[in-house]
Automatic annotation (TrEMBL):
Coiled coil: none
Lineage of source species: Bacteria, Pseudomonadati, Bacteroidota, Chitinophagia, Chitinophagales
Alphabetized UniProt keyword annotations: Transferase
InterPro entries per UniProt: Glyco_trans_1, Glyco_trans_4-like_N
SUPFAM superfamilies: UDP-Glycosyltransferase/glycogen phosphorylase
GO biological process, one term: lipopolysaccharide biosynthetic process
Molecular function (Gene Ontology), one example: glycosyltransferase activity
Chain ranges of the Glycosyl transferase family domain: 219-389
Name of the protein this chain belongs to: Colanic acid biosynthesis glycosyl transferase WcaI
Domain Glycosyltransferase subfamily 4-like N-terminal span(s) in chain numbering: 17-207
Length: 412
């Protein structure tokens, strides 16, 4: 009889970026490898910060769907989605989702036997529901940390109340203490979790489908499909357009380089700060900066192959709290990544030690400009080769998911 696994998480497929992408791929892999999978999650909304088609009409109530040839059961739960997610609005969003997911989880708790409950944080507090399953039904609890939410909210000044921050840390410590398996995606984050609990933390980095994302030979021709000239040097940022990225630096560098007609900047994605960036671009009269909606999944490999330089930008305060998920696909296509990271962070060490990208200081337009000039004016084929090989050796989805499968089975 297959083991019954329940995923509780705030994001899920068909979201194409961030945690939703990885949750969807994880459950599909587990379902195809013998698990009976159920998911309790939200309606697709990231990175646009609005409910996506075709879910708009049903977003105010619970919705059940069965997806894929493996018969994955997905329960969508309503929640408040802020179009401009400030710290307080995000708290309200998490609170509203916590209420609705608790209703659905309690319903499942007393109607369906579950062997393993997987919670992917954030939202971090969903781990309380897994503890309930563990205490009442004897389920094993795997807590996977994609983002250290509390530290990020504190360091990015999204939450300023010391009392609230302390209360959240106490709740998180309780969850970590009761999980059977705790895992995370980077050495820096693992170290921070270990410091909180003193317990072992498993390493499951974000993976990539190296057969779908791969290098293409006709990169210059692909540029013309996107409206660029073959001779253009395309600097691409593809991902969520949010507060922690610090994307204003792109506009500052574009302003400095606007006299170079062959250097083009493309910002592809969605998020609460996109319109603000567009307005700044217009006010600066930057003809070398272009915006594009998120690319459909079946064309994303072509978009990544088209770019000469890939920007992996985040603020310094986010340094070891977030391992950028976009970096995995860039590496898989053999892209040249320009990564902002402080010297002491795990991200800086990963890129430098494996020579899979160019690392620069965060929040420095001068460093960003120097990095772009280095990337486009000096041959970097060795970095592209190293990037692809690193993805094949360490980030292939089957390698990582097979290890996750072993950990799950060992804990039950």
């Amino acid at each position: 009889m297959p083991k019954r696994l329940l995923l509780i998480g705030g994001n899920f497929a068909p979201e194409l970026t961030g945690i939703g992408k990885y949750n969807g791929e994880m459950i599909r892999w587990l379902a195809h490898n013998g698990y009976d999978c159920t998911v309790i999650t939200s309606f697709p909304h990231y990175p646009q910060w609005r409910i996506q088609a075709p879910y708009q009409k049903s977003r105010y109530w619970f919705k059940k769907e069965v997806t894929g040839d493996a018969g994955i059961t997905v329960y969508r739960c309503p929640q408040y989605i802020p179009s401009n997610p400030s710290g307080k609005k995000r708290l309200l969003m998490d609170f509203s989702f916590g209420l609705s997911v608790t209703v659905k989880s309690l319903q499942q708790l007393f109607t369906r036997k579950t062997d393993i409950v997987v919670v992917v944080a954030p939202p971090f507090h969903l781990g309380l529901l897994a503890i309930l399953y563990k205490k009442i039904r004897g389920a094993r609890f795997l807590y996977h940390i994609q983002d250290l939410q509390i530290e990020a909210a504190r360091d990015l000044k999204m939450i300023s109340s010391p009392f609230l921050i302390r209360s959240m840390f106490r709740m998180e410590k309780y969850i970590l203490r009761h999980a059977d398996v705790v895992s995370s995606i980077s050495e820096g984050m693992m170290k921070k979790v270990q410091e909180k609990t003193g317990r072992e933390v498993s390493f499951f980095p974000n993976w990539v489908d190296v057969s779908f994302f791969h290098p293409l030979a006709n990169r210059e021709q692909i540029k013309t499909e996107y409206g660029f000239a073959v001779t253009d040097k395309v600097i691409l940022y593809a991902g969520a357009i949010g507060e922690k990225q610090g994307l204003e630096a792109i506009l500052q560098v574009a302003d400095c380089m606007k006299n170079d007609a062959h250097v083009k900047f493309l910002i592809c994605g969605a998020g609460p700060y996109r319109e603000q960036l567009r307005l700044q671009t217009a006010s600066l009269q930057l003809d070398n900066v272009h915006f594009r909606d998120p690319e459909p999944f079946d064309r994303f490999n072509r978009l990544l192959n088209m770019a000469d330089v890939h920007l992996v930008i985040q603020k310094a305060s986010a340094g070891d709290l977030v391992m950028p998920s976009k970096l995995t696909t860039i590496l898989a296509v053999g892209g040249l990544a320009l990564v902002t990271a402080l010297e002491h962070t795990s991200l800086h060490s990963l890129v430098k030690e494996n020579n899979i990208g160019i690392v620069i200081d965060p929040e420095s337009p001068e460093a960003l400009k120097e990095g772009i000039c280095l990337a486009i004016n000096k041959k970097q084929e060795h970095i592209a080769r190293n990037a692809r090989q690193y993805a094949l050796n360490y980030l292939a989805v089957d390698r990582i998911m097979s290890r996750l499968d072993q950990v799950i089975r060992a804990s039950t």
